[in-house]
Amino acid sequence: MAIFRIIHAALGASATLAMLAGCSGGSSPGAFSPGGPSTGRADNSLLAPTIARISHKPVATASFVDSRAAGKSLIFVSDAANGVIDIYPQSGKNQKMVGQITGLTQPQGITTDKKGNLYVANTNSSNVLVYAPPYTGKPKMTISDTHEFPADVAVSSAGVVAVTNICNAPNCRLNTGNVVLYAKGSTKGCATVSDSAFNFTRVMFAEFDSTGVLYIDGMNGGYQSSFGIVTGGCSATSITNLGYIYTVSFPGGIAIDKAGNIAFCDQINLVVDTFAPPVSNNFGEPVSTTPLTGSIAPLGIAILASGTNLYAADPGGSGVAEEYKYTAGGAAENTIAVGGQPIGIAVTPPLSKENK
């Protein structure tokens, strides 16, 4: 039975998190407070604990894509509540859906590659599905993620696939997050890395840079935001913990911009903070901060190929995808009414990873 639903207080987990947070050192950023036992919860969702999880009956219609969308620049949004990926054209304003992939079970993080293939972290089925254009019919590849809850998926310019697991299935214990890497075209993992020092009890979002370094975020044992890198692709042996980012309160989606800087969405502060690559495993101050004015809980982000605009999936309120100037931000330039609970977002063509 899928565990994605409105979840009441998970008291034992909340007590553990509160205890760990209280023991955190004075040099670390303050632990995120989930708002007390009425909202504290442990589950396999990428949402901040302040956002209620919702679930609807699965969409019964078959997958479809309007033939007029062929060859066009597209936006993909994962709607976890309805178990679908909604597809929209990039052109225009307040766009209407031109396609939908159905039959999924709590899809969360998504990404695309330079061939237009769509990768979906199909969380409650413990797999990652890969769809080729035109995105109808069966997946071209299924990557089994047995005994895990995949949260996000990233693809390097060399074709290496990284799957972040927020926790294990079906129990979702708090200290079981990891990253599994797959060689290009393979459905068998070539490396699995985790963090035994509780810097990453849960691994959430991920993105590769142009050199194949994988940036990840998640939560540590004190329920604080954590940031790290995984290097070496299939030769990876560990997660390197990066120094605290004091400006990011709760981890969200990650994107690499045209300058090679790393952008992190913050679900709580409603901004995208962008940093130059870390030096000696530490980030400096943000090189830019993009305010997502009017958003409620921005989560997944995707920078358009132009590099001048980004879309954010916002599962708060009625569920929307909003377009903002990058890096100026401010009020949204455009809003797509997705509905449900949008979490991941991706575009074709993607921003090239060879632009650094």
Description:
- The chain is mostly beta strands.
- It has one domain: Neuraminidase (6 Propeller), CATH 2.120.10.
- The chain is 3% helix and 38% strand.
- It has 1 helix and 26 strands.
- A 5-stranded antiparallel sheet has the order 1-4-3-2-26, with no helix packed on it. Strands 17-18-19-20-24 form a 5-stranded mixed sheet, with no helix packed on it.
- A hairpin with a 5-residue loop joins strand 17 and strand 18 (262-266).
- It starts with 10 loop residues before the first helix and ends in an 8-residue tail after the last strand.
At a glance:
By secondary structure, the chain is mainly beta. Helices cover 3% and strands 38% of the residues.
Question: Which oligomeric form is depicted?
Answer: single chain
Helix and strand sequence: HEEEEEEEEEEEEEEEEEEEEEEEEEE
CATH evolutionary superfamily: TolB, C-terminal domain
Q: Rough shape? A: globular
State the distance separating the first and last CA atoms: 44 Å
The CATH topology is given as Neuraminidase
Number of domains: 1
Largest sheet: 5 strands, antiparallel
CATH class: Mainly Beta
Q: Mean of residue pLDDT?
A: 88
- Name given to the CATH architecture: 6 Propeller
Task: Give me the secondary-structure category.
Answer: mainly beta
User: What's the number of helices?
Assistant: 1
Helical amount among residues, as a percent range?
under 10%
Q: Compute the number of strand runs.
A: 26
The poorly predicted ranges are 1-28, 30-41
- What spatial order of strands do you see in the largest sheet? 1-4-3-2-26
In what range is the share of β-strand residues?
35-45%
